[in-house]
């Protein structure tokens, strides 16, 4: 089973598809994307299909890298980010939920940085996600 609920390579998800599968979490998806644009108005968006294992995911990018990945699942979505060491150090030094700090500190480290995913079911983690977006944009 793919990470994304959208597994069909031939069909790029559309807004009505997102609303249907995300249900109440769709508004949080919108808050997160709006926040990225507020902090980085030049962001560009892109749907990607890296393969059957992952399915479709949505990203917002600056000129050279992804700021954030959003992967839709059934009734919720995952926020994915990749932090270099400076961004990781900053994230672990500020006020974030212990759960998010644990996710970041135990994330696997790749050549491009530490990649992590956070499940978003409701707006409880929204303030922390906004802090992480600010860190990502600043590093």
Descriptive overview:
By secondary structure, the chain is of the alpha+beta class. It has one domain (15-138): Aspartate Aminotransferase, domain 1 (Alpha-Beta Complex). It is built from five helices and six strands. The model has no long low-confidence stretch (mean pLDDT 96).
Could you write a compact summary of the structure shown?
The chain is α+β, with helices and mostly antiparallel strands. It has a single domain, classed as Alpha-Beta Complex (Aspartate Aminotransferase, domain 1), CATH 3.90.1150.
Rg measurement, Å? 14 Å
- β-sheet strand percentage: 15-25%
Counted by DSSP, the helix tally is 5
CATH class: Alpha Beta
Indicate the low-confidence ranges by residue numbers: none
Count the domains: 1
Distance between the termini: 34 Å
Widest sheet: strand ordering:
1-2-3-4-6-5
Number of strands: 6
CATH architecture: Alpha-Beta Complex
Q: Please give the oligomerization state of what you see.
A: single chain
Query: Structural class of the helix and strand makeup?
Result: alpha+beta
What are the defining features of this structure?
alpha+beta; 6 strands; 139 residues; Aspartate Aminotransferase, domain 1; globular
Strand and helix layout:
Blueprint (H helix, E strand, L loop, with lengths): L14 H8 L3 H14 L4 E5 L8 E5 L4 E7 L4 E7 L1 H9 L4 H8 L3 E2 L2 E8 L5 H13 L1
Antiparallel strand pairs: 1-2, 2-3, 3-4, 4-6, 5-6
């Amino acid at each position: 089973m793919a990470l994304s609920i959208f597994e069909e390579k031939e069909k790029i998800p559309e807004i009505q598809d997102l609303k249907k599968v995300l249900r109440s979490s769709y508004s949080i998806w919108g808050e997160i994307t709006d926040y990225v644009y507020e902090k980085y108005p030049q962001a560009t968006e892109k749907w990607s299909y890296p393969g059957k294992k992952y399915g479709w995911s949505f990203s917002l990018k600056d000129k050279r890298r992804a700021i954030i990945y959003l992967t839709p699942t059934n009734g919720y979505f995952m926020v994915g980010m990749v932090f270099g060491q400076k961004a990781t150090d900053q994230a672990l030094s500020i006020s974030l939920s212990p759960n998010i700090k644990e996710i970041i500190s135990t994330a696997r480290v790749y050549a491009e940085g530490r990649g992590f995913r956070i499940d978003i079911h409701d707006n409880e983690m929204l303030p922390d996600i906004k802090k992480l977006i600010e860190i990502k944009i600043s590093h």
